[in-house]
């Protein structure tokens, strides 16, 4: 529809321009002909046509239709709302919300209003770089206080006709600003500086918010929130208040410490009382326990004495049994030692017999060996040379022996060597005669 509106307006304006061009062109031709005619040079020119007023009127009539149609279309953008204002009856009732609307062209017009939230802001102290109102109020003591306030508001869409007809523009400067300032200047003087700064700050904000909402709401302005950002105190009061606050903080700290100490004392008293009660209860409990133990012991003694007698008798019997068991163990141990000594004697006898038998067998074997060696030497006398050579082989590297063997150990020396009788040695009665003979014959 917005494109259609602009197309219609362009067509209508184009038709009006055409009509204007036609009329102007005809006027120009007529004026040129009259000028040439006055100069006497227009005799040969054709007579100009009259001005085409009819065609121009038709063109204008044809152009008015799209122009009026385009002017009757109004588009309200998003976030906005409009009010129809008639040239005849003034502001009309009703609100035009975002979208396309039709109005009476050339009679009605639409006044647009921004329906989004707006913020009115004040500062506590003047700043050269900011063009924002400084809100200064007076406290109950007559001291000047600077307030930095934010008021968030929006227009009531159902009362735009009233706003258009009755309220001045711009609303923020002409209406919201004086209302906010006047409300704060009416309410804050009822409170002290301390109330404004600390203790009743939220109460003041709520009261001013309600009063501002009430006054601006009557004019179709909806207040959403009133915020007090900052409070600027007088310098002298701020210094004194700082010292006072420090003293109050110190006083509060001492009060809290005193309360804590009192609570510690109370806790100690309660602990002592509890300990006392606990000790009394323990004493009573111990006494009752002792009484019960005494009763139980007296009751148990009636059954304990027979049990003690039985235990003594049982102990006596166990002692006698242990005594008899010890005697029997001693007898068994003595018998075992006798048996062990007999076994040891028999073992030693067997070992002696075995050793004697071994010696006897060894002597017989040595005698037999000696007899065998003697017979061998008689048959082979050179065997002694061989044995001696074997004994000396680790000390002799080369031995040159003549083939007859006379330069080594002559057979005559060996054969003619006198036999030296060995002295008689006392014989062991246990050695057999064969062993004695073997010892006498053994040259070693």
Q: Would you give an account of this structure?
A:
The protein is α+β, with helices and mostly antiparallel strands and about 450 residues long. The protein has ten helices and nine strands. Strands 6, 7, 8 and 9 form a four-stranded mixed beta sheet that branches. Strands 3-2-5 form a three-stranded antiparallel beta sheet. Strands 1-4 form a two-stranded antiparallel ribbon.
Characteristic terms for this protein:
alpha+beta, four-stranded mixed β-sheet, 9 strands, 62% helix
Summarize the model shown.
Helices cover 62% and strands 14% of the residues.
| N-end to C-end Cα span | 156 Å
The gross shape turns out to be elongated
The number of E-state strands comes to 9
**In percent, how much strand structure appears in the residues?**
5-15%
Judged by helices, strands and strand pairing, the structural class is alpha+beta
Summarize the main sheet.
4 strands, mixed
- Mean of the pLDDT scores? 79
Provide the succession of SSEs: HHEEEEEEEEHHHHEHHHH
Count of individual helical segments: 10
Q: Compute the gyration radius: what is it?
A: 76 Å
Helix content bin: 55-70%
Low-pLDDT residue spans: 405-414, 416-444
SSE layout and pairing:
Elements: H1 2-39, H2 53-71, E1 73-76, E2 80-86, E3 90-91, E4 99-102, E5 108-114, E6 118-123, E7 133-138, E8 144-155, H3 160-166, H4 171-187, H5 193-199, H6 201-217, E9 221-232, H7 235-379, H8 383-392, H9 411-416, H10 433-441
Parallel strand pairs: 6-7
Antiparallel strand pairs: 1-4, 2-3, 2-5, 6-8, 7-8, 8-9
Helix pairs in contact: 1-2, 4-6, 7-10
């Amino acid at each position: 529809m917005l494109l259609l509106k602009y197309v219609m307006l362009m067509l209508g304006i184009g038709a009006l321009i055409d009509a204007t061009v036609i009329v102007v062109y005809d006027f120009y031709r007529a004026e040129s002909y009259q000028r040439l005619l006055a100069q006497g040079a227009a005799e040969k020119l054709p007579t100009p046509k009259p001005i085409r007023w009819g065609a121009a009127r038709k063109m204008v009539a044809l152009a008015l239709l799209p122009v009026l149609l385009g002017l009757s279309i109004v588009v309200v953008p998003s976030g906005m709302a409009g009010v129809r204002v008639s040239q005849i009856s003034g502001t009309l009732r009703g609100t035009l919300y975002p979208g396309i609307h039709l109005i009476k062209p050339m009679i009605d017009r639409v006044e647009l209003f921004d329906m989004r939230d707006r913020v009115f802001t004040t500062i506590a102290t003047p700043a050269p770089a900011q063009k924002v109102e400084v809100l200064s109020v007076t406290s109950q003591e007559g001291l000047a206080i600077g307030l930095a306030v934010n008021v968030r508001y929006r227009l009531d869409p159902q009362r735009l006709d009233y706003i258009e007809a009755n309220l001045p523009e711009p609303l923020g400067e002409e209406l919201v600003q004086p209302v906010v300032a006047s409300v704060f200047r009416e309410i804050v003087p009822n409170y002290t500086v301390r109330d404004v700064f600390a203790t009743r700050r939220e109460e003041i904000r709520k009261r001013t918010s309600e009063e501002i909402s009430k006054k601006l709401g009557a004019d179709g302005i909806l207040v959403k929130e009133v915020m007090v950002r900052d409070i600027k105190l007088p310098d002298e009061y701020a210094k004194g208040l700082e010292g006072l606050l420090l003293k109050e903080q110190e006083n509060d700290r001492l009060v809290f410490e005193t309360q804590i100490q009192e609570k510690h004392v109370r806790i100690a008293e309660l602990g002592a009382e509890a300990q006392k009660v606990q000790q009394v209860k323990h004493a009573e409990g111990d006494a009752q326990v002792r009484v019960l133990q005494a009763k139980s012991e007296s009751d148990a003694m009636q059954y304990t004495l027979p049990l003690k007698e039985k235990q003594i008798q049982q102990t006596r019997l166990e002692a006698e049994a242990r005594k008899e068991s010890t005697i029997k163990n001693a007898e068994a141990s003595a018998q075992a030692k006798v048996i062990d000594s007999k076994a040891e004697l028999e073992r030693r006898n067997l070992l002696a017999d075995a050793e004697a038998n071994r010696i006897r067998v060894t002597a017989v074997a040595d005698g037999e060996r000696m007899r065998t060696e003697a017979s061998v030497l008689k048959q082979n006398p050179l065997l002694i040379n061989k044995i001696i050579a074997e004994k000396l082989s680790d000390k002799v590297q080369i031995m040159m022996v003549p083939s007859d063997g006379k330069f080594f150990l002559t057979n005559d020396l060996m054969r003619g060597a006198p036999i030296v009788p060995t002295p008689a040695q006392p014989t062991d009665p246990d050695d057999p005669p064969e062993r004695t003979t073997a010892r006498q014959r053994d040259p070693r």
